[in-house]
Design brief:
The complex is a heterotrimer of chains A (about 325), B (about 350) and C (about 300). Chain A has 10 helices and 12 strands. By secondary structure, chain A is of the alpha/beta class. Chain C has one domain (about 15-295): Orthogonal Bundle (MetI-like fold), CATH 1.10.3720. Classes of the chains: A alpha/beta (about 325), B alpha/beta (about 350), C mainly alpha (about 300).
Chain lengths: ~325, ~350, ~300
């Protein structure tokens, strides 16, 4: 394998000290626990997990807005600390979930999209405007929106603005954090199609964070499943969807309700108790809800088993 | 549709007055639900689906006016009821489950107290009996360690558990009718599956009639007996679930189904179907079909006049001048009647 | 390239944020009435030399204590009469308005700057910064404003500049509290995260992303602080520790007129009513601005 990974995470960890009440001592909230991942050029790596699994915290560390507590983020070959903030922002950008809070309501669209160019002093005002209009065309926004304000645009149009802003510095990687979850179905597909086209046209790689597995199946080349701060399974998208190994992955896939009249709602049997990140279960974090839990699951951390098709962290595959 | 439907809505229209004009949120909506069956009302934002349910429940804001030729629930004429009578009907015969369980539960009362209140208030039960029933129902909806939960406050529970508490609270009175408005949209995928499974099995067990409002066609296909599709305040198509998915008549329904990636069916990495344009404004004089500006099949006649919901088989109706599949026969019928 | 047809409607010009705000302002009774009165007062103060030919400091011992023109023995010469030193009352009123407005405005600006600075920092950085600022606010709240103003002015002597400085340092807490709350809300918005992601420096974010969104709230507090400042100045001047005579100030006019309260009531009532009207107008404007910039209306 001579291709260098665009992004490599090694045992990345992030903890927060939280106070559970005014007089209580500070407790440690481990949002991300020892995550190791690789993003290769051209990948669409889907990070799948539900609320509280730590995917947003991980994204923030990748973007550089949150420092790691431990572990390395290696970007394009050199260590994270070697890269200046400016270089990092030109390698990796993000599109966020909520189109209604990701745009400053007091700025024009042109001003919003051109912000990265102005911060990095890329050209004169005229050149910047030309750049922005080009990008706007690329994402399907007519140039007359340049002087409009966000409140004049629909949700789908705002998300296009967010995508344009992420693209304007020509990054290699875009982190898409639930980019279509807040949009209507008919608009979701427009945005997803746009993301597919942009990837082909600009050679982008995506880190696609989503809980919508149907979308993930459609878009992703690789999948990483996250639970309570740890990656419990990784692999090729085809393999994971055809043959999921970790019980949590299986439960997630069984929860996907595709249009199938008469099929009813499956009983996925993972129990209703949600883990408390401040007091995670002993051993395997998933064991209280796992239908296949054994005695060892409660006491020992499951080993991380790597093989040809990916990795899985579960006692069942020892 | 049927001889004696449990829910009978005919010609429901709701207008909302705002500072900028009148919004015609719901326009001439008619549907029926048989006893014990589930109707899913599907639509995107601005379709009027939530307002329709609020109109049915009598929970419209003061700025809204409601008109209907018929609005019946289990034989009772809801249009004739005053606010207090309507509140009684809601409390004792209807269960309502909303999207955000945190705002539906009182944060300063324990779970047990809130649940018990449902029975003491609407069924005149004693406190002891009410608490026993509460514990029973908490267990029935699958809340672990129900005995300790009963003394906890809503903020101590996760979103999924709160929604289960809501369901338990609502079903404790054994109502005949449930309206659920996007009850699982704010929840994680795995929790959603569990809640839906719970809801549909309880509904079958207790023989309740259910109206379920959602934008998720996957959910619709799994739990609905019949589907009503709404767009721009209008009801554009109704059909039994299997028929709707097998042979969607309205171009919007078809477009919506094509938008969704289906694992195993849609080709990964290829373009998904999409519907160009955006949701229309609901103000001013609205003519013709609400979907016409975005419709690939629209003709001039679609943009003016009033379109009726026409049945085109035993239980399917569509509001369209040229539905896909069975187009010709229907177009001919329309021309003849005009 | 992609679906350009998605965007059918041309964005409406009237929907720009500031246009919407102005539109709402023009329809709000409080804003219009308060604003109008304030504009009239400001214009009267600015154009005072054109409205009256008298010098507010010019004494005339023969023409003392003349009543306003609508009373017996009043004349059109001195429309509002004269005071105990024969100075034209209208002139004193108009030039006194200058003092009140100047103090009100400048004080509001100074305390606004201090309060906004602290509030935005507290709201944005949270943690220890927040604790420190909130502590300062608590301390400030425990300080009795008028007493401190009195004490300082006694020590240092009264004058226009001293009053402005002292009040500016005493009236910032409301700004801090309001801007802190708004900033905390803005902090959680994705566009701040986006600005960070893009490489914006913290200073730039505070200036270009946070501040414009806090502006609406600041305007409300600004107007209400102006009203407070004007009232406090009048009180200080009344007590003799504010602006010093012979500079006209409504507070001084009331103080000098109070000995004639029963037989020549206009000496106290005219500046009193003026104070009432101006403060009322400012309060109407401020409350109206609060309604008009409230999040529900956005």
């Amino acid at each position: 394998m001579t291709t260098k990974a665009l992004l490599e995470l090694q045992e990345v960890t992030r903890s927060f000290a939280v106070r559970d009440g005014f007089f209580a001592p500070k407790k440690l909230l481990q949002a991300v626990r020892g995550v190791s991942l690789k993003l290769m050029p051209g990948d669409v790596l889907a990070l799948v997990g539900e609320s509280g699994c730590g995917k947003t915290t991980l994204a923030k560390m990748l973007l550089g807005t949150l420092p790691t507590s431990y572990g390395e983020i290696i970007r394009g070959g050199s260590g994270a600390s070697a890269r200046t903030r400016k270089e990092r922002t030109r390698q990796i950008q993000a599109v966020f979930q909520d189109p209604y809070s990701s745009l400053n309501p007091r700025k024009t669209i042109g001003s919003i999209i051109s912000l990265p160019l102005r911060v990095h002093r890329q050209g004169t005002a005229a050149e910047i405007r030309k750049n922005v209009v080009e990008i706007m065309d690329l994402v399907g926004l007519p140039p007359r929106f340049y002087d409009s304000y966000p409140n004049q645009l629909s949700g789908g149009q705002r998300q296009r603005v967010a995508i344009a802003r992420a693209l304007v510095l020509h990054p290699e990687i875009i982190i898409c954090d639930e980019p279509t979850s807040a949009l209507d179905v008919s608009v979701q597909s427009q945005i997803l199609n746009l993301l597919i086209d942009l990837r082909a046209e600009l050679g982008l790689s995506y880190l696609f964070i989503s809980h919508n597995l149907a979308v993930v199946e459609h878009l992703a080349t690789k999948v990483a499943v996250m639970y309570l701060g740890r990656i419990v399974e990784t692999g090729d998208a085809r393999t994971i969807f055809a043959d999921p190994r970790h019980p949590y992955t299986r439960a997630l896939l069984a929860s996907v309700l595709s249009p199938d009249p008469g099929a009813g709602v499956p009983d996925i049997q993972i129990g209703a108790s949600f883990p408390n990140p401040l007091a995670p279960p002993t051993g395997c974090a998933f064991h209280p809800r796992c239908p296949l839990a054994q005695a060892s699951c409660k006491t020992e951390m499951p080993p991380n088993i790597q093989d040809a098709s990916g990795s899985v962290e579960c006692h069942l595959y020892k | 549709m049927t001889v004696d439907p449990f829910v009978n809505v005919e010609g429901l229209s709701i207008d909302i007055t705002t500072a900028r004009g009148t919004i015609h949120a719901v326009r001439d909506v008619s549907f029926t639900v048989e006893r014990g069956k589930t109707l899913c009302i599907v639509g995107e934002s601005g379709s009027g689906k939530s307002i329709t349910s609020l109109g049915l429940m009598g929970l419209l804001p003061g700025s809204a006016t409601r008109r209907a030729a018929r609005l019946e629930l289990g034989g009772t004429d809801l249009m004739a009821l005053g606010p207090r009578a309507m509140a009684d009907v809601r409390g004792s015969h209807m269960a309502m489950i909303f999207q955000e369980p945190m705002t539906s539960l009182n944060p300063s009362l324990t779970i047990g107290e809130q649940m018990a209140e449902m029975l003491t208030r609407h069924r005149g039960a004693s406190r002891k009996l009410a608490f026993e029933k509460a514990a029973f129902w908490l267990q029935k909806v699958g809340i672990p360690a129900a005995a300790t939960r009963i003394d906890q406050f809503p903020h101590q529970l996760s979103g999924g558990l709160r929604q289960r508490v809501m369901i338990a609270m609502m079903l404790m009175c054994e109502p005949e009718f449930i309206i659920a408005d996007e009850p699982t949209t704010a929840l994680d995928v795995s929790i959603q599956a569990q809640i839906l499974h719970l809801l549909s099995s309880l509904q079958r067990e207790l023989g309740m009639t259910m109206i379920f409002i959602t934008h998720d066609l996957g959910v619709v296909s799994r739990i609905a007996d019949d589907v009503a599709v709404m767009y721009g305040g209008q009801l554009v198509e109704t059909a039994p679930t299997a028929d709707l998915f097998a042979r969607p008549q309205h171009p919007y329904t078809r477009g919506l189904i094509d938008c969704i990636p289906i694992p195993g069916k849609t080709k990964p990495g290829a373009h998904l179907g999409s519907i160009p344009g955006t949701i229309p404004s609901l103000m001013g004089a609205l003519e013709g079909c609400a979907f016409a500006p975005r419709c690939a099949y629209a003709i001039t006649e679609c943009r003016s006049g009033k379109l009726e919901l026409t049945p085109n088989s035993a239980n399917q109706s569509v509001r369209c001048l040229h539905p896909i599949g069975g187009a010709q026969s229907l177009a001919v019928t329309m021309e003849e009647t005009e | 390239m992609s679906d350009v047809s998605e965007s059918f409607e041309i964005p409406k010009r009237e929907a720009e944020p500031w246009r919407l705000l102005v539109g709402r302002m023009l329809h709000h009774k409080g804003v219009m009435i308060g604003g109008l009165i304030l504009v009239v007062v400001v214009l009267a103060a600015v154009f005072a030399p054109f409205i009256t030919q008298y010098d507010p400091l010019q004494q005339s011992l023969s023409g003392r204590l003349q009543p306003p023109f609508w009373m017996e023995r009043g004349s059109a010469d001195h429309v509002l009469g004269t005071d105990h030193l024969g100075r034209d009352y209208l002139a004193r009123l108009l030039y006194g308005a200058r003092v009140s407005l100047l103090i009100g405005f400048t004080t509001a600006l100074i305390s606004g700057s201090i309060g906004t600075f602290l509030g935005v920092l507290a709201g944005y950085f949270g943690g220890r910064t927040d604790s420190v600022v909130m502590f300062l606010v608590t301390v400030k709240l425990s300080i009795p404003t008028i007493l401190v103003a009195l004490a300082v002015v006694q020590l240092v002597g009264g004058s226009l500049q001293i009053v402005i400085l002292v009040l500016g340092l005493l009236l910032w807490h409301q700004f801090a509290v309001v801007t802190r709350a708004t900033t905390m809300q803005i902090r959680g918005m994705d566009y701040i995260t986006a600005a960070e992601t893009v490489g914006c420096s913290t200073f730039r974010i505070l200036l270009t992303e946070v501040l414009p969104n806090v502006l609406n709230q600041i305007i409300v507090v600004l107007t209400l602080t102006m009203a407070s400042a004007i009232l406090i100045e009048a009180a200080l001047s009344f007590l003799g520790v504010g602006v010093q005579p012979p500079t006209p100030s409504w507070g001084i006019m009331i103080a000098e007129g109070k000995q004639h309260l029963f037989f020549k009531p206009w000496l106290v009532m005219i500046p009193g009513v003026a104070l009432l009207v101006v403060v009322l107008a400012i309060n109407l404007l401020g409350d109206g601005m609060r309604d008009v910039t409230a999040p529900e209306k956005r």
